Structure formats: C-alpha cells, structure tokens
Amino acid sequence: LPRGPAELELALEELALLAAGERPSDPGEHPQDRPGPLAEVAGLQPPPPPPAQDPELLSVIRQKDLVLAALVGKALLERNQDMSRQYEQMHKELTDKLEMRTSLRGWQLEQEKRELRRFENQEGEWEGCEAELENDVKELQDELERQQVHLWEVDGEQTQAVQELSEQNQRLLAQ
C-alpha cells in the first residue's frame, strides 16, 4: 500500500495508464514509470502489450486493473479515515481549549465583578462614614464655640466680681 503522497500519486498514474490500455515503457528508460508500490504489493506487474484483441488476456488485464483499483481505493479510504480521525481529534482538542479559556475568562470576569461590587460597597460605607465624621466635626466645632462663649462670659463675670470685691475692699479700708 502507498505510504505517502508521492507513492499514492505514482500508483494513481500507473492505474490511469493501465486503464487506458497503455503500458509503461522499459523501466530502465524511465524510472518514474516503473510499476508502483500497489502493483508490487498486489503482485501485479504490467503484462507485455496484449496481442490485438485476445479476449482472455484482456479479461486477465481487466481483473488485475480492478484489483489495482480496489487497492488504490482501499488505500485512499484508509487515508481519508485517518485524516478524518486526526481532524476530529484536533477539533476536539481545540474545542476543549476554547471551552476551558471561555470558562476561565468567565470565572475571571465573575471575580472582577465581585471585587468591583465589594469596592463599590466599601466606597458607599466610606462616604457614609465621611458624612458622619463631618457632622461630628461640625457638632464639636459648635460645642467648642458655645464653650468659648460661656468661658468668655464666665471670665467677664469673674473680672467684674474681682473688680467689685476690690472696690468693696477699698471702701472698707477707707472707713
């Protein structure tokens, strides 16, 4: 059976010549016209040119041609089946890789979405905390202002009381 594209091509050319009733010339003269591997495997060597119209010889040649055609057909079929299996295997591998990448990318996108939601939630919490802290600062500033006003008032009252007591002391001393 042909083992490669070159041997298969040679066998097909030989088959075409045999089917046309032509025979390759002397193998030494044209080495490329030597019987192909299919003919060798099947034990088919091209017979010498038939005498004109020998029906029995023509029948034998036709039978050998049919065997050769069957061998070539079988080889082509096996090669086609091998190529189909290889194609299916490659297709499966590529499909599996694509599914795995798609699945991995989907998982990564899901993780990124979770992280984004978590950050958005934290941002909302921080904004809430910031607003609370700003409110606390405002309240503390207002309280500080009230305490300062109160302290100023108390300080003024103390100053006035000290002044009044000083005046009373001086009046008492003067008496």
Automatic annotation (TrEMBL):
Query: Which species does the entry assign this protein to?
Result: Sousa chinensis (Indo-pacific humpbacked dolphin)
| InterPro entries noted in UniProt | Spindly/BICDR_Dynein_Adapter (IPR051149)
Its recorded name reads: Uncharacterized protein
Keywords, alphabetical = Coiled coil
**What segment(s) does the record annotate as region Disordered?**
19-55
Q: Where is the composition biased (Basic and acidic residues)?
A: 23-33
Biological process GO annotation list? Answer: Golgi to secretory granule transport; vesicle transport along microtubule
